Amino acid sequence: MEHADLLQLLADPTRMTLIELLLQRNYCVSTLATVTGISAPAVSQHLKQCLQTGLVTSEKIGYQTHYSVNRELLRELSTAVARLADVETLPCETSGTRCNHRKGRCGRKIKLHNSALADK
Questions:
Q1: pLDDT at position 103, please?
Q2: What pLDDT shows up at residue 11?
Q3: What mean pLDDT value characterizes the chain?
Q4: Whole-angstrom Cα distance, residue 117 to residue 99?
Q5: What global pTM score does this model have?
Q6: Ranges of the chain with pLDDT below 70
Q7: 91 located within any domain
Q8: Biggest alpha carbon distance in the chain?
Q9: What CA–CA distances, in Å, run from 2 to 54, 55, 59, 100, 120?
Q10: Can you give the residue range of the structural domain that contains 21?
């Protein structure tokens, strides 16, 4: 799964709330709906998206499906975001008052190397 997809998933306040609850303990849809005040179908749809990305896993226990967070994937995402803060910022190359990067005039190819988000 792409890190950007996970960030987009977590950008939704409702899904973020569900993830925060699931980090505390495993829950079924009905309990999450009751605790959050969100309808069970809406909770199911949010969890479906989380399942598709691999951020959430499910386990059938009796008649209920219990959900939990894939903490390893969350740690990978956290590491990738933390590495972004360590990327060195290079000064802009100028000739006089004009930036040489405009319209590719600098002659250098701009590429993502050692990108924290390029790994996934």
A1: 56
A2: 94
A3: 84
A4: 27
A5: 0.73
A6: 1, 92-120
A7: no
A8: 72
A9: 11, 11, 24, 32, 5
A10: 3-71
